[in-house]
Amino acid sequence: MEPRGPAPAALLGPLLLLLLLPLLLPQSGPAVSAQSAAAACSQSSNQSCTECLKNVSCFWCYTNNACLDYPVRKILPPSSLCPLSSARWGVCWVNFEALIIAMSVVGGALILGITICCCCCCCRKRRNHRSDKEEERAAREREERKVRQEERRAEMKSRHEEIRKKYGLFKEQNPYARFEN
């Protein structure tokens, strides 16, 4: 049985990336990189949102105008650190609430699209399989009708021959033979 849908091929790229990511990253200790990121974020606190967001490990909080270290262990920053409506990451004009809603809509649309594509492919295969069966059945029925028609034709021919014999109307080989002397 062959694999269905684009799922295995689509997952292969991200899986390889996750496996090769430790090899691609610089080999510095986690404590050193965390300390340097936190220091870089705290240095950007008195600056603007755009300056803070130049470092991808930082996020900007509009409630206290602070550049904070993004909590990597959690997906979203906790509300005790900064409310989601005031948190900015990546760009200053999109807050986390809008980002979550947009990503949910895009993710849902992708899942829906993939599901519809898979269903269409499956239905097309079934339809093709059905049409093959229907064509085969129609050909069989045509052949059966043809055989019955030949049988009826032969039966009618034998009846006509019997009637000709009964009344003496034999079919002659050459119809012009009786006019010749």
From TrEMBL:
Segment forming the signal sequence: 1-26
Region described as Disordered: spans on this chain: 133-160
Residues that span the membrane, as ranges: 98-123
Record's bilayer topology term: Single-pass type I membrane protein
Gene responsible for this protein: PTTG1IP
Major subcellular location class: membrane
Cell compartments where the protein resides: Membrane
Protein source organism: Vombatus ursinus
Biological processes annotated in GO: protein import into nucleus
UniProt GO cellular component terms: cytoplasm; membrane; nucleus
Listed name of the protein: PTTG1 interacting protein
The keyword Secreted is annotated on this UniProt entry: no
UniProtKB keywords: Membrane, Signal, Transmembrane, Transmembrane helix
Keyword Aminoacyl-tRNA synthetase: no
Cross-referenced InterPro entries: PTTG1IP
